[in-house]
# Entry
Amino acid sequence: MKEPETTHGSFVVERGFAQPPEEVFRYFADADRKRRWFVGDARDETSSYALGFRVGGTENTRWTWRGGGPIPVGTITGNDAVVLDIVPHRRIVVAYSMQMGSDRFSSSLLTFEFLAEGTGTRLRATEQGAFFERSDGPEMRENGWRGLLESLANAIDAEARTSP
# Structure
């Protein structure tokens, strides 16, 4: 029997936004706004999403893969997070685990820093993770966060275009 393997990795992803930190922060604190950029894409179907944005609160997501990626069609995947720290408009720290079916494949500490940059924001996401058997690993997770921050930018831009 093969011994379980764990890969440890950390990375930093940064992205600039034209909006001030208070505005970008809202897209993490408000469940409807966060769902727009964080949950779902063309490859999956979200079955549940809940956000309790407070220290000690939780965030839980479940989705089913529809294909088009490395995950088999019909695989139920989940993300469960606990909010560890919030400094409004400056920092959010969460601990989260991901699983496919009943198999947990990673656990991470994730810090978001909202840094004022001129009239905009430099968002810095730092992840420190333990990646288990059948995991996506640090490189794929980093790419995933780059894509999610792009989705965040798109959500902010879309709302700005529809606001009076």
User: Anything to note?
Assistant: Residues 7-40+81-162 form a domain with the Alpha-D-Glucose-1,6-Bisphosphate; Chain A, domain 4 fold (CATH 3.30.530.20). The mean pLDDT is 90. Helices lie at 21-29, 31-38, 137-162.
